[in-house]
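Bumping my old thread because nobody answered last time. Still need a sequence for this structure:
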């Protein structure tokens, strides 16, 4: 008998919700503390379940899954991918990190490069940062007029609705950390030789804009969390608990599809493999 699953609906943002990130926990003490000692065992169980479901996804080739990971610097996007998807067959999953657009990408509309990377049937694709950068960075750094980034909310909602209508399961996660936890993690990167390669001086400049980013994320989530492409605001100060929440949400989404292995094209009982 497996461990009872977390109730992750408390982290889902219902469509039409006006989000104030100050009202969402970065550390769910009531639940993360009780799971701290056995989080590794629980995650191992979820890893195996997720691997089985991904195998069904690949075999059936009827559905597509898009996972969007966003969060402040050090919120753990890379680590989430490493721990949540560690047992999945690499042939069935793609992780994409959207950086600053190159010249060819910048010559097109901002969704052009994103649409090319959405999952095909039978695959699971992870966006480590995503099209949401185009309503965050331009807003915070005032790279484009407000009317430009503000109308993109509608573009993004329409884009995701089209993907969902065409069979893509979309789950979006904002990894929510506290300012104090970000400071601790940045200091760890400075001190730990194994993590110093992650440190960038630009992270400190971006940290000065913390409040601006919090407002930008809150509005982006408010305007684009829909029934078919919901946002989950995941408490991310406690890394093991963060991983359990993301894993549980994905497993429940895949289980809801009622997938099964496809039947063989012919009668296999009559076939023998000769010596």
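Sorry it took so long. Here it is:
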């Amino acid at each position: 008998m497996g461990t009872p699953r977390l109730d992750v609906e408390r982290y889902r943002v219902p469509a039409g919700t006006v989000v104030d990130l100050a009202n969402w926990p970065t550390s769910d003490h009531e639940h993360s503390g009780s799971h701290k000692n056995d989080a590794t065992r629980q995650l191992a169980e979820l890893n195996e379940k997720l691997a089985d479901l991904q195998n069904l996804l690949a075999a059936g080739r009827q559905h597509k899954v898009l996972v969007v990971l966003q969060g402040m610097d050090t919120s753990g996007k890379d680590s989430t991918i490493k721990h949540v998807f560690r047992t999945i067959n690499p042939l069935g999953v793609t992780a994409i990190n959207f950086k600053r657009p190159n010249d060819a990408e910048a010559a097109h509309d901002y969704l052009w490069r994103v649409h090319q990377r959405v999952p095909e049937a039978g695959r699971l694709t992870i966006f480590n940062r995503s099209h949401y950068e185009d309503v965050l960075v331009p807003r915070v750094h005032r790279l484009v007029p407000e009317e430009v980034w503000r109308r993109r909310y509608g573009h993004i909602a329409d884009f995701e609705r089209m993907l969902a209508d065409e069979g893509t399961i979309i789950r979006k996660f904002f990894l929510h950390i506290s300012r104090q936890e970000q400071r601790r993690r940045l200091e760890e990167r400075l001190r730990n030789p194994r993590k110093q390669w992650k440190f960038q001086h630009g992270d400190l400049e971006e940290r000065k804009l913390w409040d601006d980013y919090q407002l930008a994320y809150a509005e982006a989530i408010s305007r684009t969390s829909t029934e078919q492409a919901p946002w989950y605001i995941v408490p991310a100060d406690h890394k093991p608990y963060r991983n359990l929440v993301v894993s549980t949400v994905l497993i429940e989404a895949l289980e809801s599809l009622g997938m099964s292995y496809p039947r063989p094209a012919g009668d296999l009982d009559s076939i023998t493999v000769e010596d």
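The mean pLDDT is 93. Let me know if any region looks off to you.
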